[in-house]
Write a sequence for this structure.
């Protein structure tokens, strides 16, 4: 938006003129859906904890909401370190260390990715993405085999000699991944993981609908693919810039005018940050309440 004002003032004014088309009920619904995403993320993670070490859901929600807020407004991944610090056992236990918790957090990331893959393959959204980047099946296999070769190379030359030292740490880490082998825990976590992505797709549907460019769910997931590729490596605070640019690019690929796409992307990101701040404040309140009740 700042770049538009400086270089393309008429386009920026066009984007601003489109903002009143978003009604107040639409904006409230988007904030609610973004807030529900945080709740679903917390429940998804909560189900991955072993029963004997499962923290209260309110504690996991507090850690998740504050952590996601920190990830948005502070240096990259600061929120993930916060979650580890808050949810780590105090005092430390022999069968549940911070490395075990790191394994649980890694399992949560894997569930999140798997849910996204289920949805984009179910709806066929990946086909549009491959066409956008002109990737052929042969090129995809080259990337897969190249990654596999690099992993073997790193293992043989760098990790093999240090395996004895790493084995104990890895045992604790993989202990945290055990929840992926528990069918009930994994199923419940997957259910809420899918709800996280569906909620974001519905947000995109609502915002596009109010700009008179309704999107189907497959189209929404295509936009989310492009968005998550762009923000995979954070290069700005709160991903401001890459978020709007990638979403606007994806929406324009679906036939939406660029100014309209920028309006949708800007409002989407802005309301997402509002929801993070609201949930982060609630999480902070829950932390204070939990501390005072103890």
């Amino acid at each position: 938006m700042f770049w538009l004002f400086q270089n393309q003032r008429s386009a920026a004014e066009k984007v601003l003129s489109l903002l009143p088309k978003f009604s107040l009920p639409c904006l409230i619904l988007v904030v609610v859906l973004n807030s529900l995403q945080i709740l679903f993320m917390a429940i998804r993670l909560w189900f991955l904890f072993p029963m004997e070490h499962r923290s209260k859901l309110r504690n996991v929600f507090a850690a998740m909401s504050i952590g996601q807020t920190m990830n948005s407004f502070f240096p990259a991944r600061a929120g993930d370190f916060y979650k580890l610090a808050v949810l780590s056992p105090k005092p430390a236990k022999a069968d549940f260390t911070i490395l075990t918790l790191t394994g649980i957090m890694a399992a949560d990331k894997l569930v999140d990715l798997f849910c996204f893959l289920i949805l984009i393959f179910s709806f066929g959204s990946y086909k549009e993405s491959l066409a956008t980047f002109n990737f052929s099946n042969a090129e995809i296999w080259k990337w897969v085999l190249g990654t596999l070769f690099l992993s073997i190379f790193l293992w043989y030359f760098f990790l093999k000699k240090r395996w004895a030292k790493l084995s104990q740490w890895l045992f604790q880490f993989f202990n945290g991944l055990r929840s992926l082998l528990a069918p009930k825990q994994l199923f419940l976590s997957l259910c809420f993981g899918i709800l996280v992505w569906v909620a974001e797709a519905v947000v995109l549907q609502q915002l596009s609908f109010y700009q008179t460019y309704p999107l189907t769910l497959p189209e929404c997931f295509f936009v989310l693919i492009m968005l998550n590729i762009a923000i995979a490596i954070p290069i700005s605070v709160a991903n401001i810039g890459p978020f709007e640019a990638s979403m606007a690019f994806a929406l324009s690929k679906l036939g939406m005018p660029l100014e309209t796409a920028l309006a949708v992307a800007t409002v989407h990101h802005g309301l997402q940050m509002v929801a993070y701040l609201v949930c982060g404040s609630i999480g902070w309140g829950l932390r204070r309440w939990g501390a005072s009740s103890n």
Remarks:
- Residues 258-293 form the longest helix (36 residues).
- DSSP finds 13 helices and no strands in the chain.
- The CA atoms of residues 128 and 193 lie 23 Å apart.
- The radius of gyration is 21 Å.
